[in-house]
Amino acid sequence: MNNSDSKIRIALDTMGGDNAPQVEVKGAVLALRENLHDLFIYFVGKEEEIKAELKKENYSGDNYEIVNADEVITMHDSPAKAVKTKKNSSLVVASKLVKEGKAHALVSAGNTGAVTMASILNIGRLKGVSRPTIASPIPTEKGTLSRITDSGAFVDSKAEHLLEFAKLTDVFMRYVQKVDNPTVGLLNVGEENSKGYQLTYETFELLEKSDLNFKGNIEGKDVFKGTVDIVVCDGFVGNIVLKFAESVLPFLKKKFKDYANTGLLPMLQIGIAKSAVKKALHDTDPNYYGGTPLLGINGITIIGHGSSSAIGIKNMIYEAAKSQEADLIQKIKNSQ
Amino acid sequence: MNNSDSKIRIALDTMGGDNAPQVEVKGAVLALRENLHDLFIYFVGKEEEIKAELKKENYSGDNYEIVNADEVITMHDSPAKAVKTKKNSSLVVASKLVKEGKAHALVSAGNTGAVTMASILNIGRLKGVSRPTIASPIPTEKGTLSRITDSGAFVDSKAEHLLEFAKLTDVFMRYVQKVDNPTVGLLNVGEENSKGYQLTYETFELLEKSDLNFKGNIEGKDVFKGTVDIVVCDGFVGNIVLKFAESVLPFLKKKFKDYANTGLLPMLQIGIAKSAVKKALHDTDPNYYGGTPLLGINGITIIGHGSSSAIGIKNMIYEAAKSQEADLIQKIKNSQ
Q: In this structure, which topology does domain B1-129+287-336 adopt according to CATH?
């Protein structure tokens, strides 16, 4: 292993997703072939399976290495327990490559809780960060991607944590997403300052006193509108909103299908509508925007859906590469 | 006034909505003309304006009465303050008609917080109910309407309140919506019992010990799926999810419009798609399902969107009528 060159080194949890290692290898090879970033990929996982997939892809560059790891953390594993006991899992081994400085970024489409735990326990939090945050992208009417922070790293955060989440996400938006002076809103049940309960009152005050571009309270209806770039909430609310948002497309598909089944004309209409709807909503596909950063860790961590496609994996790798090119970790350190 | 007959008596806050009193009068007249329920409507509000609207509608039945009220509570009024100080507002006067037994139901498309306060302060809670709940309908993939309870009556509820919300909504679903043995789910960040935080742990235990048809935790993605009939959560989360859900259609419209503007073929495609989408999603229009009950009050209260159409108002009146025909208040008393 050699990390003295300028390559962006990605530790890919190659066994993480629902269709691992096939889509992981396919996605990584797409990224290596497109060559938009100067990448080096550690394929971490079951060596024989990874070799077989690489052979299928017929890829023979010298910008990768297979790191064997025999265990797999599944979606059903308890995060903390799995990370502590499955020492030879692809996720744990990949996270340790980041800790050891061999890789800049951990990329995984595995168990979100376990990726979070592995990042906290093995890579470690940045100094000054008491809680990292999952800053999930969410498409908006404006065509921008807002971020919901925290969307589920923790479920019992306090006002000072929410302030940290906002600050970490602000740095990410500025330097990685290149959003100029990103706006921040506190997710609440009404726009007036007086709305909410103890946590929101306290968070509102902290955000207002901060240097952030705070726009006050926003409501559930403002998330898709893109009223602000950064939607601040605790991880319980954020996780529910995020998963609800992700259910919108399947809901539409089912409704269209049911309507198409009511007759020949509806079937024709929906047939024509389908491709239009797909194009109109192409930027709402999680595979399109490529993963979610876990911010506040002493290394780049990008988490993806278990159901990520190869394109999704490729875009997760790109998100990690962009974060490294933007020197995200140093930028966060400077902001503390 | 005469309440000795069998008519269902509705106190309509005729000045409540964004387009009051026009849509309120139009909607009520639609209900009176359709005559599906044996209704008597109190039009509560500015007498002259209501008279003018009734004249426009050319309605001359004997099953209504105008009750003058000169003040109006707006969407910007502070709920508690407005209900206490605007004694001659249409909302306060209408709620008092229910308190006095002259009307069975209060129907309002006004300020939700104010309708909740007026119901609690003027009509009163049922014995055994510490907190009423707003049980908002939400469309599902299955074509059913689930209920999110509480969707915003309170924002700092405890486990015992959430249990009450579930019980009140269970009675409503059984007797008004005629759902057989409605299923109940606790909105959480994962399906496992161990997920969540103090409030969800405690609520889970209470729901599990109850006689309700409790199916365990559900996630944000399960709401649109219709995994359960009754989604239990505190009003902070419920309000955010509800408002987010209501933003889905406007989001789609904007995305379609933007895509249509990219060229002639997209414009044609979207033109055809539009009517199909409208039909496929017709049951997701809040005007279609007619308002939200506030449960736990000693009288029927139906709250609607400020932007309700005349059809929306009509359906709110129908929801109130169905609740009275099902003898909802007595059924809730029996369940205590």
A: Isopropylmalate Dehydrogenase (3.40.718)
